[in-house]
TrEMBL record:
<dbReference type="InterPro" id="IPR050740">
    <property type="entry name" value="Aldehyde_DH_Superfamily"/>
</dbReference>
<dbReference type="GO" id="GO:0033721">
    <property type="term" value="F:aldehyde dehydrogenase (NADP+) activity"/>
</dbReference>
<dbReference type="InterPro" id="IPR016163">
    <property type="entry name" value="Ald_DH_C"/>
</dbReference>
<dbReference type="Pfam" id="PF00171">
    <property type="entry name" value="Aldedh"/>
</dbReference>
<protein>
    <submittedName>
        <fullName>NADP-dependent aldehyde dehydrogenase</fullName>
        <ecNumber>1.2.1.4</ecNumber>
    </submittedName>
</protein>
<dbReference type="InterPro" id="IPR016162">
    <property type="entry name" value="Ald_DH_N"/>
</dbReference>
<dbReference type="InterPro" id="IPR015590">
    <property type="entry name" value="Aldehyde_DH_dom"/>
</dbReference>
<feature type="domain" description="Aldehyde dehydrogenase">
    <location>
        <begin position="4"/>
        <end position="435"/>
    </location>
</feature>
<dbReference type="InterPro" id="IPR016161">
    <property type="entry name" value="Ald_DH/histidinol_DH"/>
</dbReference>
<keyword id="KW-0560">Oxidoreductase</keyword>
Length: 498
Protein backbone atom coordinates (compact mmCIF):
# COMPACT_ATOMS: atom_id res chain seq x y z
CA UNK A 1 0.00 0.00 0.00
CA UNK A 2 1.04 3.62 -0.56
CA UNK A 3 2.22 5.66 2.41
CA UNK A 4 0.58 9.01 3.09
CA UNK A 5 2.70 12.17 3.04
CA UNK A 6 1.94 15.67 4.22
CA UNK A 7 3.48 19.03 3.32
CA UNK A 8 3.84 22.20 5.35
CA UNK A 9 2.75 25.00 2.96
CA UNK A 10 4.80 27.58 4.87
CA UNK A 11 8.10 25.72 4.50
CA UNK A 12 7.56 23.21 1.72
CA UNK A 13 8.84 20.45 3.99
CA UNK A 14 7.25 17.09 3.24
CA UNK A 15 7.10 14.23 5.71
CA UNK A 16 5.84 10.67 5.55
CA UNK A 17 3.14 9.72 8.05
CA UNK A 18 2.43 6.45 9.75
CA UNK A 19 -0.67 6.18 7.52
CA UNK A 20 -1.42 4.34 4.31
CA UNK A 21 -3.95 4.78 1.55
CA UNK A 22 -7.08 2.82 2.37
CA UNK A 23 -7.47 -0.40 0.39
CA UNK A 24 -10.73 -2.18 -0.41
CA UNK A 25 -10.65 -4.20 2.81
CA UNK A 26 -10.08 -1.08 4.88
CA UNK A 27 -12.92 0.72 3.15
CA UNK A 28 -15.26 -2.22 3.72
CA UNK A 29 -14.33 -2.23 7.41
CA UNK A 30 -15.01 1.51 7.71
CA UNK A 31 -18.41 1.21 6.04
CA UNK A 32 -19.28 -1.79 8.19
CA UNK A 33 -18.35 0.14 11.34
CA UNK A 34 -20.53 3.08 10.25
CA UNK A 35 -23.42 0.71 9.58
CA UNK A 36 -23.18 -0.88 13.02
CA UNK A 37 -22.81 2.53 14.66
CA UNK A 38 -25.95 3.75 12.90
CA UNK A 39 -28.05 1.14 14.68
CA UNK A 40 -26.49 2.03 18.03
CA UNK A 41 -26.81 5.79 17.49
CA UNK A 42 -30.51 5.40 16.82
CA UNK A 43 -30.89 3.28 19.95
CA UNK A 44 -29.30 6.08 22.01
CA UNK A 45 -32.25 8.34 21.25
CA UNK A 46 -32.18 12.09 20.94
CA UNK A 47 -30.88 12.86 24.40
CA UNK A 48 -28.20 10.17 24.25
CA UNK A 49 -26.91 11.46 20.92
CA UNK A 50 -26.96 15.02 22.28
CA UNK A 51 -24.72 14.01 25.17
CA UNK A 52 -22.40 12.17 22.77
CA UNK A 53 -22.00 15.28 20.57
CA UNK A 54 -21.23 17.40 23.62
CA UNK A 55 -18.62 14.89 24.77
CA UNK A 56 -16.90 15.01 21.36
CA UNK A 57 -16.80 18.81 21.57
CA UNK A 58 -15.30 18.63 25.06
CA UNK A 59 -12.67 16.13 23.94
CA UNK A 60 -11.60 18.23 20.94
CA UNK A 61 -11.26 21.34 23.08
CA UNK A 62 -9.25 19.41 25.66
CA UNK A 63 -6.73 18.65 22.86
CA UNK A 64 -6.87 22.19 21.45
CA UNK A 65 -3.12 22.83 21.44
CA UNK A 66 -2.30 19.55 19.71
CA UNK A 67 -5.07 19.90 17.13
CA UNK A 68 -4.22 23.51 16.24
CA UNK A 69 -0.52 22.71 15.93
CA UNK A 70 -1.24 19.76 13.63
CA UNK A 71 -3.58 21.80 11.44
CA UNK A 72 -1.17 24.73 11.21
CA UNK A 73 1.65 22.44 10.11
CA UNK A 74 -0.48 21.29 7.17
CA UNK A 75 -2.33 24.48 6.20
CA UNK A 76 -0.23 27.47 7.39
CA UNK A 77 -3.51 29.15 8.34
CA UNK A 78 -2.10 30.36 11.66
CA UNK A 79 -3.02 29.69 15.26
CA UNK A 80 -5.51 32.56 15.56
CA UNK A 81 -7.57 31.37 12.60
CA UNK A 82 -7.32 27.71 13.60
CA UNK A 83 -8.20 28.31 17.24
CA UNK A 84 -11.30 30.12 15.99
CA UNK A 85 -12.09 27.22 13.69
CA UNK A 86 -11.74 24.70 16.50
CA UNK A 87 -14.11 26.80 18.62
CA UNK A 88 -16.56 26.83 15.71
CA UNK A 89 -16.24 23.05 15.34
CA UNK A 90 -17.04 22.51 19.01
CA UNK A 91 -19.90 25.01 18.79
CA UNK A 92 -21.41 23.12 15.85
CA UNK A 93 -21.40 19.87 17.82
CA UNK A 94 -23.05 21.51 20.82
CA UNK A 95 -25.48 23.33 18.54
CA UNK A 96 -26.73 20.03 17.13
CA UNK A 97 -27.13 18.75 20.67
CA UNK A 98 -29.58 21.64 21.13
CA UNK A 99 -31.32 20.74 17.87
CA UNK A 100 -31.80 17.20 19.10
CA UNK A 101 -33.22 18.22 22.46
CA UNK A 102 -35.57 20.76 20.88
CA UNK A 103 -36.90 18.06 18.55
CA UNK A 104 -38.79 19.98 15.88
CA UNK A 105 -36.37 18.66 13.24
CA UNK A 106 -38.32 15.37 13.38
CA UNK A 107 -41.34 17.02 11.70
CA UNK A 108 -43.53 14.67 13.74
CA UNK A 109 -47.22 14.59 12.76
CA UNK A 110 -50.16 12.59 14.09
CA UNK A 111 -53.50 12.40 12.29
CA UNK A 112 -55.89 10.26 14.31
CA UNK A 113 -58.48 8.13 12.58
CA UNK A 114 -61.71 9.99 11.94
CA UNK A 115 -64.27 11.26 9.50
CA UNK A 116 -63.32 13.84 6.86
CA UNK A 117 -65.21 15.48 3.97
CA UNK A 118 -63.49 12.86 1.80
CA UNK A 119 -64.65 9.97 3.94
CA UNK A 120 -63.04 8.00 6.78
CA UNK A 121 -59.36 8.64 7.39
CA UNK A 122 -57.09 5.95 8.88
CA UNK A 123 -54.72 6.66 11.72
CA UNK A 124 -51.58 8.14 10.15
CA UNK A 125 -48.35 9.15 11.86
CA UNK A 126 -45.27 10.55 10.17
CA UNK A 127 -41.76 11.65 11.12
CA UNK A 128 -38.22 11.77 9.80
CA UNK A 129 -35.85 8.86 10.39
CA UNK A 130 -32.14 8.39 9.58
CA UNK A 131 -31.20 7.50 6.02
CA UNK A 132 -28.36 5.24 7.10
CA UNK A 133 -24.56 5.49 6.99
CA UNK A 134 -23.24 8.52 5.12
CA UNK A 135 -20.04 9.59 3.39
CA UNK A 136 -18.44 12.97 4.06
CA UNK A 137 -15.72 14.40 1.81
CA UNK A 138 -13.50 16.77 3.79
CA UNK A 139 -12.81 20.30 2.53
CA UNK A 140 -9.31 21.59 1.88
CA UNK A 141 -9.83 25.08 3.30
CA UNK A 142 -11.38 24.14 6.66
CA UNK A 143 -9.34 21.30 8.21
CA UNK A 144 -11.69 21.15 11.20
CA UNK A 145 -15.06 22.86 10.67
CA UNK A 146 -15.74 21.26 7.26
CA UNK A 147 -13.69 18.12 7.66
CA UNK A 148 -13.58 15.07 9.95
CA UNK A 149 -15.37 16.56 13.00
CA UNK A 150 -17.11 19.32 11.04
CA UNK A 151 -20.67 20.37 10.39
CA UNK A 152 -21.56 17.52 8.01
CA UNK A 153 -20.35 14.93 10.52
CA UNK A 154 -22.11 16.67 13.41
CA UNK A 155 -25.40 16.79 11.50
CA UNK A 156 -25.12 13.15 10.45
CA UNK A 157 -24.37 11.92 13.98
CA UNK A 158 -27.25 14.02 15.28
CA UNK A 159 -29.54 12.40 12.71
CA UNK A 160 -28.42 8.99 13.95
CA UNK A 161 -26.13 8.10 11.04
CA UNK A 162 -22.65 6.64 11.23
CA UNK A 163 -20.06 8.45 9.11
CA UNK A 164 -17.15 7.56 6.87
CA UNK A 165 -14.99 10.61 6.10
CA UNK A 166 -12.71 10.77 3.07
CA UNK A 167 -9.76 12.78 4.41
CA UNK A 168 -8.53 15.63 2.28
CA UNK A 169 -4.94 15.06 1.08
CA UNK A 170 -3.98 18.55 2.24
CA UNK A 171 -4.30 17.65 5.94
CA UNK A 172 -4.14 13.89 6.59
CA UNK A 173 -2.29 14.17 9.92
CA UNK A 174 -4.91 16.54 11.31
CA UNK A 175 -7.64 14.20 10.08
CA UNK A 176 -6.05 11.23 11.81
CA UNK A 177 -5.60 13.14 15.06
CA UNK A 178 -9.15 14.45 15.35
CA UNK A 179 -10.52 11.05 14.31
CA UNK A 180 -8.63 9.43 17.17
CA UNK A 181 -9.94 12.03 19.62
CA UNK A 182 -13.49 11.39 18.38
CA UNK A 183 -13.04 7.62 18.61
CA UNK A 184 -12.02 7.87 22.26
CA UNK A 185 -15.50 9.26 22.93
CA UNK A 186 -17.67 7.27 20.54
CA UNK A 187 -16.10 3.79 20.60
CA UNK A 188 -17.14 2.90 24.18
CA UNK A 189 -20.71 4.09 23.52
CA UNK A 190 -21.67 3.19 19.94
CA UNK A 191 -18.53 1.78 18.33
CA UNK A 192 -16.61 3.55 15.54
CA UNK A 193 -19.20 6.17 14.61
CA UNK A 194 -16.68 8.19 12.56
CA UNK A 195 -14.13 6.39 10.40
CA UNK A 196 -11.58 8.04 8.11
CA UNK A 197 -10.31 6.72 4.78
CA UNK A 198 -7.39 8.01 2.72
CA UNK A 199 -6.50 8.11 -0.94
CA UNK A 200 -8.06 8.92 -4.30
CA UNK A 201 -9.40 5.44 -5.00
CA UNK A 202 -10.95 5.18 -1.56
CA UNK A 203 -12.88 8.36 -2.32
CA UNK A 204 -14.17 6.91 -5.57
CA UNK A 205 -15.13 3.60 -3.99
CA UNK A 206 -16.76 5.20 -0.94
CA UNK A 207 -19.56 6.92 -2.84
CA UNK A 208 -20.33 3.61 -4.57
CA UNK A 209 -20.35 1.46 -1.42
CA UNK A 210 -23.83 -0.14 -1.29
CA UNK A 211 -24.37 0.56 2.42
CA UNK A 212 -23.69 4.30 2.08
CA UNK A 213 -27.02 6.14 1.81
CA UNK A 214 -25.96 9.77 1.21
CA UNK A 215 -22.80 11.78 0.57
CA UNK A 216 -21.77 15.39 1.18
CA UNK A 217 -18.86 17.20 -0.42
CA UNK A 218 -17.19 20.62 -0.29
CA UNK A 219 -14.63 21.22 -2.99
CA UNK A 220 -13.96 21.76 -6.66
CA UNK A 221 -16.59 21.59 -9.41
CA UNK A 222 -14.63 18.89 -11.26
CA UNK A 223 -14.27 16.58 -8.29
CA UNK A 224 -17.80 17.20 -7.07
CA UNK A 225 -19.37 16.58 -10.46
CA UNK A 226 -17.48 13.30 -10.87
CA UNK A 227 -18.64 12.05 -7.47
CA UNK A 228 -22.21 13.23 -8.09
CA UNK A 229 -22.30 11.26 -11.32
CA UNK A 230 -21.07 8.15 -9.53
CA UNK A 231 -23.73 8.61 -6.85
CA UNK A 232 -26.42 8.91 -9.53
CA UNK A 233 -25.15 5.92 -11.52
CA UNK A 234 -25.39 3.44 -8.63
CA UNK A 235 -27.94 0.63 -8.95
CA UNK A 236 -29.72 2.43 -6.09
CA UNK A 237 -28.80 6.12 -6.54
CA UNK A 238 -28.17 8.18 -3.42
CA UNK A 239 -28.44 11.91 -2.71
CA UNK A 240 -25.19 13.82 -3.21
CA UNK A 241 -24.94 17.18 -1.47
CA UNK A 242 -22.10 19.15 -3.00
CA UNK A 243 -20.90 22.72 -2.53
CA UNK A 244 -18.70 23.22 -5.57
CA UNK A 245 -17.63 26.85 -5.36
CA UNK A 246 -19.36 30.20 -5.60
CA UNK A 247 -18.86 33.59 -7.24
CA UNK A 248 -20.69 35.56 -4.47
CA UNK A 249 -21.53 38.77 -6.36
CA UNK A 250 -21.57 42.19 -4.69
CA UNK A 251 -23.67 45.04 -6.07
CA UNK A 252 -22.83 48.59 -5.03
CA UNK A 253 -25.51 51.13 -5.89
CA UNK A 254 -24.52 54.57 -7.24
CA UNK A 255 -25.80 56.20 -4.05
CA UNK A 256 -23.76 53.85 -1.85
CA UNK A 257 -20.62 54.42 -3.91
CA UNK A 258 -21.07 58.19 -3.62
CA UNK A 259 -21.71 58.08 0.13
CA UNK A 260 -19.03 55.65 1.36
CA UNK A 261 -16.63 54.49 -1.30
CA UNK A 262 -13.66 54.20 1.07
CA UNK A 263 -15.58 52.29 3.74
CA UNK A 264 -17.04 49.79 1.29
CA UNK A 265 -13.65 49.34 -0.38
CA UNK A 266 -11.89 48.62 2.91
CA UNK A 267 -14.45 46.03 4.00
CA UNK A 268 -14.56 44.43 0.57
CA UNK A 269 -10.77 44.13 0.44
CA UNK A 270 -10.70 42.47 3.86
CA UNK A 271 -13.35 39.99 2.75
CA UNK A 272 -11.53 39.16 -0.49
CA UNK A 273 -8.20 38.38 1.20
CA UNK A 274 -9.53 36.72 4.38
CA UNK A 275 -7.98 33.29 4.83
CA UNK A 276 -5.84 33.86 1.76
CA UNK A 277 -8.98 34.26 -0.33
CA UNK A 278 -9.66 30.56 0.17
CA UNK A 279 -13.25 30.79 1.44
CA UNK A 280 -16.21 29.55 -0.57
CA UNK A 281 -17.94 32.81 0.42
CA UNK A 282 -15.19 35.10 -0.88
CA UNK A 283 -16.67 37.94 -2.97
CA UNK A 284 -15.60 37.06 -6.50
CA UNK A 285 -17.47 39.71 -8.50
CA UNK A 286 -18.23 43.32 -7.54
CA UNK A 287 -20.57 45.38 -9.71
CA UNK A 288 -19.50 49.00 -9.27
CA UNK A 289 -20.95 52.03 -11.05
CA UNK A 290 -18.98 53.94 -13.66
CA UNK A 291 -18.11 57.55 -12.89
CA UNK A 292 -16.13 59.40 -10.25
CA UNK A 293 -17.60 57.69 -7.19
CA UNK A 294 -17.05 54.23 -8.63
CA UNK A 295 -13.53 55.21 -9.69
CA UNK A 296 -12.75 56.24 -6.11
CA UNK A 297 -14.09 52.96 -4.76
CA UNK A 298 -12.11 50.86 -7.22
CA UNK A 299 -8.91 52.82 -6.56
CA UNK A 300 -9.31 52.41 -2.81
CA UNK A 301 -10.03 48.68 -3.23
CA UNK A 302 -6.99 48.12 -5.44
CA UNK A 303 -4.77 50.02 -3.01
CA UNK A 304 -6.04 48.08 0.01
CA UNK A 305 -5.60 44.73 -1.71
CA UNK A 306 -2.10 45.61 -2.96
CA UNK A 307 -1.02 46.38 0.61
CA UNK A 308 -1.72 42.82 1.77
CA UNK A 309 1.27 40.50 1.91
CA UNK A 310 1.40 37.25 -0.02
CA UNK A 311 0.37 34.16 1.95
CA UNK A 312 0.92 30.45 1.38
CA UNK A 313 -1.82 28.74 -0.54
CA UNK A 314 -3.16 25.56 1.02
CA UNK A 315 -1.27 23.48 -1.54
CA UNK A 316 1.16 24.04 -4.39
CA UNK A 317 -1.53 22.85 -6.78
CA UNK A 318 -3.88 25.56 -5.56
CA UNK A 319 -1.14 28.16 -6.03
CA UNK A 320 -0.62 26.97 -9.60
CA UNK A 321 -4.36 27.09 -10.27
CA UNK A 322 -4.48 30.63 -8.88
CA UNK A 323 -1.66 31.71 -11.19
CA UNK A 324 -3.42 30.18 -14.18
CA UNK A 325 -6.73 31.70 -13.13
CA UNK A 326 -5.28 35.20 -12.91
CA UNK A 327 -3.73 34.82 -16.34
CA UNK A 328 -7.04 33.71 -17.85
CA UNK A 329 -8.93 36.57 -16.21
CA UNK A 330 -6.44 39.18 -17.39
CA UNK A 331 -6.61 37.76 -20.92
CA UNK A 332 -10.36 38.44 -21.26
CA UNK A 333 -11.03 41.34 -23.64
CA UNK A 334 -11.97 44.39 -21.58
CA UNK A 335 -10.26 43.07 -18.43
CA UNK A 336 -7.14 44.53 -16.83
CA UNK A 337 -5.11 43.60 -13.76
CA UNK A 338 -5.11 46.59 -11.41
CA UNK A 339 -2.90 45.40 -8.58
CA UNK A 340 -0.80 42.51 -7.34
CA UNK A 341 -1.61 39.03 -8.42
CA UNK A 342 1.07 36.38 -8.46
CA UNK A 343 1.88 32.92 -7.19
CA UNK A 344 5.45 32.03 -6.31
CA UNK A 345 7.18 28.74 -6.98
CA UNK A 346 6.99 28.07 -3.24
CA UNK A 347 3.20 28.41 -3.23
CA UNK A 348 2.61 31.92 -1.88
CA UNK A 349 -0.17 33.94 -3.50
CA UNK A 350 -0.52 37.71 -3.55
CA UNK A 351 -3.97 39.37 -3.77
CA UNK A 352 -5.26 40.98 -6.94
CA UNK A 353 -8.08 43.04 -8.39
CA UNK A 354 -9.15 42.64 -12.02
CA UNK A 355 -11.28 45.41 -13.54
CA UNK A 356 -13.67 44.59 -16.36
CA UNK A 357 -15.23 47.12 -18.70
CA UNK A 358 -17.50 45.22 -21.04
CA UNK A 359 -21.06 44.29 -21.88
CA UNK A 360 -21.48 40.79 -20.40
CA UNK A 361 -19.96 38.56 -17.73
CA UNK A 362 -19.45 35.16 -19.27
CA UNK A 363 -16.92 32.38 -19.54
CA UNK A 364 -13.94 32.76 -17.20
CA UNK A 365 -15.32 35.97 -15.67
CA UNK A 366 -18.35 34.10 -14.36
CA UNK A 367 -16.31 31.30 -12.76
CA UNK A 368 -14.73 31.13 -9.33
CA UNK A 369 -10.99 31.76 -9.14
CA UNK A 370 -9.98 30.16 -5.83
CA UNK A 371 -7.66 32.58 -4.08
CA UNK A 372 -7.38 36.26 -3.12
CA UNK A 373 -8.74 37.88 -6.29
CA UNK A 374 -11.96 39.59 -7.29
CA UNK A 375 -13.28 40.99 -10.56
CA UNK A 376 -14.72 44.50 -10.49
CA UNK A 377 -17.22 44.93 -13.32
CA UNK A 378 -18.16 48.53 -14.08
CA UNK A 379 -21.75 49.28 -15.06
CA UNK A 380 -23.21 52.35 -16.79
CA UNK A 381 -26.81 52.08 -15.66
CA UNK A 382 -29.39 49.69 -14.21
CA UNK A 383 -29.99 47.86 -17.47
CA UNK A 384 -26.26 47.30 -18.00
CA UNK A 385 -25.77 46.08 -14.42
CA UNK A 386 -28.69 43.67 -14.76
CA UNK A 387 -27.23 42.29 -17.98
CA UNK A 388 -23.87 41.76 -16.28
CA UNK A 389 -25.53 39.97 -13.35
CA UNK A 390 -27.62 37.79 -15.64
CA UNK A 391 -24.46 36.03 -16.81
CA UNK A 392 -23.58 34.76 -13.34
CA UNK A 393 -24.26 31.20 -12.17
CA UNK A 394 -26.02 30.16 -8.99
CA UNK A 395 -24.28 31.37 -5.88
CA UNK A 396 -24.12 30.88 -2.14
CA UNK A 397 -24.48 34.59 -1.43
CA UNK A 398 -25.36 37.93 -2.98
CA UNK A 399 -24.52 41.21 -1.29
CA UNK A 400 -26.20 44.59 -1.77
CA UNK A 401 -24.73 47.91 -0.68
CA UNK A 402 -27.54 50.45 -0.64
CA UNK A 403 -28.36 53.75 1.03
CA UNK A 404 -31.52 54.25 3.16
CA UNK A 405 -34.50 54.52 0.83
CA UNK A 406 -32.24 53.68 -2.12
CA UNK A 407 -34.39 52.88 -5.17
CA UNK A 408 -31.46 52.73 -7.56
CA UNK A 409 -30.69 49.81 -9.88
CA UNK A 410 -33.86 47.75 -9.20
CA UNK A 411 -33.36 45.45 -12.18
CA UNK A 412 -29.77 44.76 -11.17
CA UNK A 413 -30.83 44.00 -7.60
CA UNK A 414 -33.34 41.47 -8.84
CA UNK A 415 -30.80 39.86 -11.18
CA UNK A 416 -28.04 39.64 -8.56
CA UNK A 417 -30.27 38.01 -5.94
CA UNK A 418 -32.27 35.72 -8.26
CA UNK A 419 -29.97 32.71 -7.84
CA UNK A 420 -28.51 33.26 -4.37
CA UNK A 421 -29.04 31.18 -1.24
CA UNK A 422 -28.27 34.03 1.20
CA UNK A 423 -28.82 37.74 0.55
CA UNK A 424 -26.78 40.23 2.58
CA UNK A 425 -27.30 43.95 3.02
CA UNK A 426 -24.33 46.20 3.83
CA UNK A 427 -22.29 43.30 5.19
CA UNK A 428 -19.68 40.98 3.72
CA UNK A 429 -20.30 37.31 2.87
CA UNK A 430 -17.22 35.71 4.45
CA UNK A 431 -18.37 34.24 7.73
CA UNK A 432 -21.30 31.82 7.91
CA UNK A 433 -23.08 31.80 11.26
CA UNK A 434 -24.16 28.41 12.63
CA UNK A 435 -27.80 29.20 13.39
CA UNK A 436 -31.37 27.99 13.00
CA UNK A 437 -32.08 30.47 10.19
CA UNK A 438 -28.86 29.93 8.24
CA UNK A 439 -28.87 28.75 4.63
CA UNK A 440 -25.59 27.81 2.96
CA UNK A 441 -26.41 26.54 -0.49
CA UNK A 442 -27.91 27.64 -3.75
CA UNK A 443 -28.57 26.63 -7.34
CA UNK A 444 -25.75 25.00 -9.30
CA UNK A 445 -22.83 24.81 -8.56
CA UNK A 446 -24.53 23.62 -5.38
CA UNK A 447 -25.81 20.20 -6.37
CA UNK A 448 -29.04 20.52 -4.37
CA UNK A 449 -30.68 23.92 -3.99
CA UNK A 450 -33.21 22.68 -1.41
CA UNK A 451 -30.80 21.90 1.41
CA UNK A 452 -28.17 23.76 3.42
CA UNK A 453 -24.77 22.54 4.60
CA UNK A 454 -24.69 24.92 7.59
CA UNK A 455 -27.30 25.49 10.29
CA UNK A 456 -29.97 23.47 12.04
CA UNK A 457 -31.77 22.31 8.91
CA UNK A 458 -28.61 20.75 7.47
CA UNK A 459 -29.63 17.66 9.46
CA UNK A 460 -32.48 17.21 6.96
CA UNK A 461 -30.01 15.90 4.36
CA UNK A 462 -29.51 12.71 6.35
CA UNK A 463 -33.15 11.97 7.14
CA UNK A 464 -36.11 10.57 5.22
CA UNK A 465 -39.85 10.64 5.98
CA UNK A 466 -41.77 7.52 6.98
CA UNK A 467 -45.52 7.25 7.65
CA UNK A 468 -47.14 4.59 9.86
CA UNK A 469 -50.77 3.68 9.12
CA UNK A 470 -52.98 1.98 11.70
CA UNK A 471 -49.90 0.89 13.63
CA UNK A 472 -50.18 -0.64 17.11
CA UNK A 473 -48.63 1.67 19.69
CA UNK A 474 -45.84 -0.79 20.41
CA UNK A 475 -44.76 -0.58 16.76
CA UNK A 476 -44.53 3.21 16.77
CA UNK A 477 -41.44 5.27 17.53
CA UNK A 478 -41.70 6.86 20.96
CA UNK A 479 -42.02 10.29 19.34
CA UNK A 480 -45.27 9.27 17.60
CA UNK A 481 -47.10 7.67 20.51
CA UNK A 482 -50.03 9.42 22.15
CA UNK A 483 -49.42 11.37 25.32
CA UNK A 484 -47.31 14.37 26.31
CA UNK A 485 -43.90 14.85 24.68
CA UNK A 486 -41.02 17.27 25.17
CA UNK A 487 -40.84 18.55 21.59
CA UNK A 488 -43.18 20.25 19.09
CA UNK A 489 -45.41 18.15 16.86
CA UNK A 490 -48.64 18.55 14.89
CA UNK A 491 -51.64 16.57 16.12
CA UNK A 492 -54.83 16.49 14.02
CA UNK A 493 -53.68 19.60 12.20
CA UNK A 494 -52.85 21.62 15.31
CA UNK A 495 -49.30 22.49 16.32
CA UNK A 496 -48.78 21.25 19.87
CA UNK A 497 -45.90 22.72 21.85
CA UNK A 498 -44.33 20.99 24.86
Amino acid sequence: MTSITTTDPATGVRRTLDLEETDSAGLAAAVSAATAATTRLQALGRTGRARLLESIADALEARRDDVVAAADSETALGSIRLNGELSRTAFQLRFFAEVLREGSYLEAVIDHAGDTPMGPRPDLRRMLVPLGPVAVYAASNFPLAFSVPGGDTAAALAAGAGVVVKAHPAHPATSALVASVTAEVTDPVVGRAVSVVYGYQAGIDLVQAPAIRAASFTGSPGGGRALAELAAARPSPIPFYGELGSINPVLVSPAAAAARADTIAAGLAASIVQGGGQFCTKPGIALVPAGASGDALVAALASAVAAVDAKPALTLGMADAYRDGLASLAAVPGASLLSGGSASATGSTSPAVVEFDGEELAGRLAEECFGPVAVVARYRDDEHAARLAAGLPGTLTATLFLEPGDAGVPAARAAVTASAGRILYDQYPTGVAVAWAQHHGGPWPSTDSVHTSVGATSIRRYLRPVAWQNAPEAELPAELRDGPVDFPRRVDGVLVLP
